[in-house]
Amino acid sequence: GGQPRNVQPFSDEDASLETMSHCSGFSDPASFTEDVPEVDEEATQEDLEYKLKGFIDLTLDKSAKTRQAALESLKNAFSSKILYEFIMERRMTLTDSIERCMKKGKSDEQCAAAGLACLLCVQMGSGIESEEIFKTLGPVLKKIVCDGTASIQARQACATCLGVCCFIVTDDIMELYSTMECLENIFTKAYQRDRDTNGVSSTHSTVLHISALLAWTLLLTICPMNEVKKKIEMHLHKLPSLLSCEDLNMRIAAGETLALLFELARETDADFFYEDMDILTEKLRALATDGNKHRAKVDKRKQRSVFRDVLRAVEERDFPTEMVKFGPERMYIDCWVKKQTYDTFKEILGSGMQYHLQSNDFLRNVFELGPPVMLDAATLKTMKISRFERHLYNSAAFKARTKARSKCRDKRADVGEFF
């Protein structure tokens, strides 16, 4: 390869060219301060597009490091801004670049290319354009996922990308089944490993099994009910074996998938009965109260928190509703299907999730949020809080908190009451 070029990565400052950064200004009304100067939006948009064109060109560079840096910069831009029109004009060029990087690149470059492919489909939404992208990239993704000689990291990234892109396109039902079968062939190997009498744990491949399982679970949420029934019959008796896996993330992935399968099973059949319910609930209760000393405290805390919710879902058909705030809007996550979908897209978009929930038509459609809420200048002005007011509020809150904690920590306070 040639000498790597000095690529200036897409940064938070670039993302805020339209007063929008990874932490969107619209996500936090308080971030609009009175002393922000007016910005020439047209000029900044041209500047941004000029930079992005440069990154697209660099994805064809001879140097692998330069190509990877360009892919990462494009990922940052696509996750933090809506660039539909810009991408629409260059979608074929971007698709060709991603395909080339996946076929010819090494592990890190393939991971970056797979991540960019996800974001490309998220930006384009569920139209014909995304179908064309998936028709080109789908076979390449499947080939890497099933290639035992490829790196685990690349296969893991491609498994996630395959699930997400198929979820977005979802027009051809046979393609959906084919993709799910490809992912099943990967994560079902974890069942076989669990039955291995030698008890050898190949940890390096566990991350791939987890990604394939989560991607498959995402696709299961959009399957017709008759197919859901078949998959539940096929996997509901095998998944509990993964709860004994040494890897915490695999135990959590298996537990959350079980909760989702029970939720779907009860939707399809109100009288659904699971034969080994007592054995399963005993396993889940043990994980929800796990106190093994050889495990890290953080891991135990996380595991107990997740499996308390999973146990409630399996035993009591209950889900702890969560609320997500973004700008002036609120979204309630009130079922495992919604949680699985939200967690997947949050993993892909990172800190840009709130901005996309506000502005991305596809995501708003997935979560049934309706068209984007347009705020006029007057509304934004009423939502603004000056920097000085925020400072006063924070100072007062800090003082009150300190006083409250000091009383609790003062050993001399009310000593007589205990005697």
UniProtKB/TrEMBL annotation:
<dbReference type="InterPro" id="IPR007701">
    <property type="entry name" value="Interferon-rel_develop_reg_N"/>
</dbReference>
<dbReference type="GO" id="GO:0005634">
    <property type="term" value="C:nucleus"/>
</dbReference>
<dbReference type="InterPro" id="IPR016024">
    <property type="entry name" value="ARM-type_fold"/>
</dbReference>
<dbReference type="GO" id="GO:0030154">
    <property type="term" value="P:cell differentiation"/>
</dbReference>
<dbReference type="InterPro" id="IPR011989">
    <property type="entry name" value="ARM-like"/>
</dbReference>
<feature type="domain" description="Interferon-related developmental regulator N-terminal">
    <location>
        <begin position="19"/>
        <end position="315"/>
    </location>
</feature>
<dbReference type="Pfam" id="PF04836">
    <property type="entry name" value="IFRD_C"/>
</dbReference>
<comment type="similarity">
    <text>Belongs to the IFRD family.</text>
</comment>
<dbReference type="InterPro" id="IPR039777">
    <property type="entry name" value="IFRD"/>
</dbReference>
<feature type="region of interest" description="Disordered">
    <location>
        <begin position="1"/>
        <end position="33"/>
    </location>
</feature>
<comment type="subunit">
    <text>Interacts with PSIP1/LEDGF.</text>
</comment>
<protein>
    <recommendedName>
        <fullName>Interferon-related developmental regulator 1</fullName>
    </recommendedName>
</protein>
<feature type="domain" description="Interferon-related developmental regulator C-terminal">
    <location>
        <begin position="360"/>
        <end position="413"/>
    </location>
</feature>
<dbReference type="Pfam" id="PF05004">
    <property type="entry name" value="IFRD"/>
</dbReference>
<keyword id="KW-0221">Differentiation</keyword>
<dbReference type="InterPro" id="IPR006921">
    <property type="entry name" value="Interferon-rel_develop_reg_C"/>
</dbReference>
<keyword id="KW-0217">Developmental protein</keyword>
